[in-house]
Each structure stands twice: as structure tokens, then as C-alpha cells.
TrEMBL record, chain B:
Pfam families on file: Redoxin
Residue stretches spanning the membrane: none
Record-linked InterPro entries: Redoxin, Thioredoxin-like_sf, Thioredoxin_domain, Thioredoxin_ResA/DsbE_sf
Keywords: Signal
Keyword Signal: yes
Coiled-coil positions: none
Organism field: Thalassolituus marinus
Name of the protein in question: TlpA family protein disulfide reductase
First and last residue of the signal peptide: 1-18
Domain Thioredoxin positions: 19-160
Length: 71, 161
């Protein structure tokens, strides 16, 4: 039997024992405010607006963009 | 080798056996949130029951609980009951939420996750409409205020049966 494959599978098995699916009802902590990337949605959107207008020529927050400055 | 592969598959696949429409809903018993005692599905035998899974951190639940409270107030006399099952990790959060959004229908608490597992809850909130015979008639995922019209119509048709 292919020993390498067995060892790979066994290792994978060991690793998967560390996987847990977070159930929909276990998302209380994830839904908490402190878990969001931006604390204040309004401030974030204002910041983004300024950022986009300043960095428009390079595509704003995205990699796409032709550099026409018309973003 | 095959056993290993099967084990591996079983571990990575998280298969949930969910209730399906037409199934007989199994009974459950849970402690009440706001008072002493327990209640379960069998406590509301012969009624059209709307089982609503919710949590204090769930955004749409701020809309659904008051809306369901109004609907239940209207149709209680005809044999309709709402049973809300809270799934918060900390029961204190649930009680604080109910102080802010008080409801007249029974609220139960399940901190173990057994009941949502039994029902196969896939999102918050999820609700299950059960007819007078104890059979599952509809599953409702999520909630927006306009949903209540459809829910009301479903409940009315089940009450008429």
C-alpha cells in the first residue's frame, strides 16, 4: 500500500479534528460591534469618500482603474 | 485506506439533518426565560404554533419580535401561539433584550444548541410554522417587516383547517 498517501491522509485527519463549523446560533460574539472592521459606518463611508476622491487616479480602493482620474 | 478516506469525508462534511415540510415535529422541553418552569411543543397541542429561533445579537429580531407579538395578540383567540426559543450564549443578554422589546408570548431558552440542531436552523432568525396536527408546514428564514403579511396569510389558512 502507498505509505505516503496513508501518512498524508492520517495527517489531514489529525488536522481536521481542529475544524469546527460555527453554527448560526453561535455567532453572538462575531456579531458584536467590536468585531467589525470599522466601528462607525458613517465615519467609514466619509473616510472612503475622501480617500476615493484623493486616490481616484490610481483606482481608489481597488486595483482596477485606468488612471484617468475620473473615479 | 477506504475507511480512512470515509472518516476524512465524514469529518469535513458537516451534514445537518434538518426538518422538512410535512414532517412530524419532534417534541422538546425547555426552561422558560422570564419565569420559572418549562414548556415545550406538547404544551400547545392542537394549536397552530410558530416556533421562532432568535438571539439578542440578531439584527432582524428587533423587528420580528414586536411584529410577531402583534400578530399573536390578534390571532391568539383563534388558536395561534408563538413560541420563541432564544439561543444566546448568556441568558442575561436575552433577558435584557426582552426588557427592551417585551412580548406576551412564551419565550424559552436553549443555551445548549440542541433544539436548533434538531430543527436544522441555518440562519438567524429561522421560524417554523406547525399546524394543529403537529406537522411542519413552512420554514421562514430571516425577517423583514413586510414578511409579516405572508406569515399572517399562512397562519390564517392553517387556522381555518
Amino acid at each position: 500500500m502507498n505509505h505516503k498517501l496513508t501518512i498524508t491522509l492520517l495527517t489531514a485527519l489529525l488536522l481536521t479534528s481542529g475544524c469546527t463549523a460555527v453554527k448560526p446560533w453561535e455567532r453572538g460574539n462575531l456579531a458584536s460591534d467590536v468585531m467589525s472592521w470599522q466601528g462607525d459606518a458613517l465615519k467609514a463611508s466619509l473616510d472612503n469618500h475622501v480617500y476615493f476622491s484623493k486616490e481616484g487616479s490610481s483606482g481608489g480602493g481597488q486595483a482596477a482603474g485606468g488612471g484617468c482620474g475620473c473615479n | 485506506m477506504r475507511v480512512l478516506a470515509a472518516l476524512f469525508l465524514a469529518l469535513i462534511m458537516n451534514n445537518v439533518s434538518a426538518l422538512e415540510v410535512g414532517d412530524k415535529v419532534p417534541d422538546f422541553r425547555l426552561p422558560l426565560l422570564t419565569q420559572q418552569g418549562q414548556a415545550g411543543l406538547s404544551s400547545f397541542k392542537g394549536k397552530v404554533v410558530y416556533v421562532d429561533f432568535w438571539a439578542s445579537w440578531c439584527g432582524p429580531c428587533r423587528k420580528s419580535l414586536p411584529a410577531l407579538n402583534t400578530l399573536r395578540k390578534e390571532l391568539k383567540g383563534k388558536g395561534f401561539e408563538v413560541v420563541a426559543i432564544n439561543l444566546d450564549e448568556d441568558v442575561k443578554d436575552a433577558r435584557a433584550f426582552l426588557k427592551e422589546f417585551p412580548v406576551a408570548y412564551p419565550t424559552l431558552y436553549d443555551g445548549t444548541g440542541k433544539t436548533p440542531e434538531l430543527f436544522g436552523v441555518r440562519g438567524m432568525p429561522t421560524s417554523y410554522l406547525i399546524d394543529r396536527q403537529g406537522k411542519l408546514q413552512a420554514v421562514h428564514q430571516g425577517f423583514k417587516p413586510s414578511d409579516i403579511t405572508g406569515i399572517r396569510a399562512q397562519v390564517m389558512s392553517l387556522l381555518a383547517k
